[in-house]
Automatic annotation (TrEMBL):
Catalytic reaction annotation: (2E)-3-(2,3-dihydroxyphenyl)prop-2-enoate + O2 = (2Z,4E,7E)-2-hydroxy-6-oxonona-2,4,7-trienedioate + H(+); 3-(2,3-dihydroxyphenyl)propanoate + O2 = (2Z,4E)-2-hydroxy-6-oxonona-2,4-dienedioate + H(+)
Superkingdom of origin organism: Bacteria
Gene Ontology terms, MF aspect: 3-carboxyethylcatechol 2,3-dioxygenase activity
Gene encoding the protein: mhpB
Name recorded for this polypeptide: 2,3-dihydroxyphenylpropionate/2,3-dihydroxicinnamic acid 1,2-dioxygenase
Lineage: Bacteria, Bacillati, Actinomycetota, Actinomycetes, Geodermatophilales
CDD domains listed in its UniProt record: MhpB_like (cd07365)
Pathway: Aromatic compound metabolism; 3-phenylpropanoate degradation
Record: active site: 115 (proton donor), 179 (proton acceptor)
Length: 312
């Protein structure tokens, strides 16, 4: 068994509302480095921790986290649609192992996923069906949210359960860091929006296009400084990356969802995916962050980070 981890921010605005060329060049170099890291590691299995943005999970049943034994991508924001190459047998084995370790994991035999899952697979592997994957949804948007300590415990249990497989396993955390995109909230939502967030009526192509255009415009306004969205917070993002780099993961147990939202915006909770990925890596012992990149990118509405890590 050998482990590795990658944390990678996602944004549906990548390629649609890009920052200045010199910023893009720096980001491309960091992403290229992460891709080379993954290529060299040659994972036999990817455990992919990612959030959802009201494409697969709705308030009628909103688990804090959920492991998929099969998953299909909706193709939002031009991302690839269709089935992910989920290894069902391994997903079952990991789920049983995690439950046996005392974590109340939920399981989906038909998960619907969006760009949160698809983007890292596209960026690092060139598509959603090129490597055996176990997708693990982590709620990073829909309040109320539970303690971050439970996410750390989940990651640790997944790491322990996966260690028994005797495979090269790459853990990926998708999302973050500080960011406040215009994802709707149930609290205070008009009746029509609340119903959609609860029930999850699949949008028509026109409704989807309208929603995506709204997010694109929000990115343009944010970059122009004409927005009320919570600003990207490089100091908070550095704190998050420091904890992950230093391996002091127990620090996150003191983080409250309210504090995280105040510091990093409504989608800062996506850093839960990074915490799970690094906790899984840490289940095999001390690790070293082998690369770390960060840049605030208002055009993408993202405190954008890429990091790689290996056991010491
Ligand atoms: O509107 C959505 O579905 C999500 C938008 C978004 C924007 C920027 C960064 C992210 O992580 C997002 O999910
Ligand atoms: Fe997101």
């Amino acid at each position: 068994m050998t482990f590795a981890a990658v944390g990678l921010s996602h944004s549906p605005l990548i390629g649609k509302n890009d920052p200045a060329p010199e910023v893009l060049t720096r980001i491309d170099a960091a992403v290229d480095q992460a891709r080379a890291f993954v290529h060299e590691f040659e994972p036999e299995l990817v455990v992919l921790y990612a959030p959802d943005h009201y494409n697969g999970f709705f308030y009628k049943d909103m688990p804090p986290f959920c492991l998929a034994t099969a998953a299909t991508a909706v193709g939002d924001f031009g991302s690839q649609a269709g089935p992910l190459s989920v290894d069902r047998d391994i997903a079952d084995t990991v789920a049983e192992g995690v439950l046996d370790l005392g974590i109340d994991l939920t399981v989906s035999a038909r998960m619907t996923v969006d760009h949160g899952f698809v983007q890292p697979l596209e960026v690092l592997f060139g598509g959603i069906d090129t490597v055996p994957v176990v997708p693990v949804f982590i709620n990073g948007v829909a309040t109320p949210l539970g303690r971050v300590s439970r996410i750390r415990a989940l990651g640790d249990a997944v790491g322990q359960a996966t260690a028994r497989l005797d495979k090269r396993v790459l853990f990926i955390g998708s999302g973050g860091l500080s960011h406040d995109p215009p994802v709707p909230t149930l609290k205070g939502a008009p009746a029509r929006v609340a119903d959609a967030l609860i029930e999850g009526h699949p949008p028509t192509p026109e409704q989807r296009a309208k929603g995506e255009a709204r997010v694109l415009q929000a990115g343009r306004d944010y970059a122009a400084g004409a927005s009320t969205m919570v600003p990207i917070n490089p100091a908070w993002d550095a704190l998050v990356l420091d904890v992950l780099e230093n391996g002091t993961l127990a620090d996150v147990d003191a983080w409250t969802p309210d504090w995280m939202a105040r510091e990093g915006g409504g989608s800062a909770h996506e850093v839960r995916t990074w915490i799970a990925a690094f906790a899984s890596l840490a289940a095999a012992g001390p690790y070293e962050m082998t690369s770390r990149f960060y840049e605030p990118v208002p055009e993408w509405i993202a405190g954008f980070a890429v990091a790689t890590a290996l056991p010491r």
